[in-house]
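Colleagues,

Please find the record for the four-part complex below.
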Amino acid sequence: MNLHHPSREDLDVSMVLHALSDPHRLHIVKKLAEHGAEPCSCGGFGIDLTKSTLTHHFRVLREAGVITQRPAGTSKLNSLRREDLDARFPGLLDAVLAAIPAPPAAQVPV
Amino acid sequence: MNLHHPSREDLDVSMVLHALSDPHRLHIVKKLAEHGAEPCSCGGFGIDLTKSTLTHHFRVLREAGVITQRPAGTSKLNSLRREDLDARFPGLLDAVLAAIPAPPAAQVPV
DNA sequence: CAGATAGTTCGCTAACCGTCGTACAATTAG
DNA sequence: CTAATTGTACGACGGTTAGCGAACTATCTG
């Protein structure tokens, strides 16, 4: 099962915007941006969704070219494709990151 | 039939991004950006879609807070809500505008 | 008034999307 | 080998969406 990542030239604005238009996915992207390219496995995002649903969201992000997924043991390491996004759509990622609000409605902040 | 426009504080990133994630709507936004706040009626965008479908797209844009629609005679004047968007999501609109590619697949370019 | 013009509204269809559960695959730990 | 962990694949579901056509409203112009 080869993980397909679109090449930089193949990035499509509408596809990227659509990938970013879901609160859960926005939250994922935000977390990834904070963690740099660290061991962000698919779990541990504090999102209250099923495993299969998470897989779905990560795939949407990956196929839109927003993130990279690299298998590592039984996990997958996710990272933002900052360079590619900045190259193709300058300023877009930063603007979106700055616009992301509170969590999408998962854990109570107290 | 009151045209509802969300107030600036009620603008939602995901909603805006979703509104912008359609090639046709992206094209509309691009044209509006070029024309400033000029007499951009709903037709005249060179989009090969039915009137009802156009109505639909303009409503999505309006309800997301991306555009304003003001009735003027038998037409409607559309304009970008630049100020509001820039205030809530600084840099986002410009980044998206810069990223918009060729037309979404409508009229022959020459 | 009559006609033209510009959008809206209302079904309706086909596709898509987010979500889930269950079953499966792959890797690591005992 | 067995069990646990992590994620994927697949099928199903309900809701949303983009698109159309046809009928309608509202305005402006004769």
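The mean pLDDT of chain B is 88.

Comments are welcome before we finalize the supplementary table.
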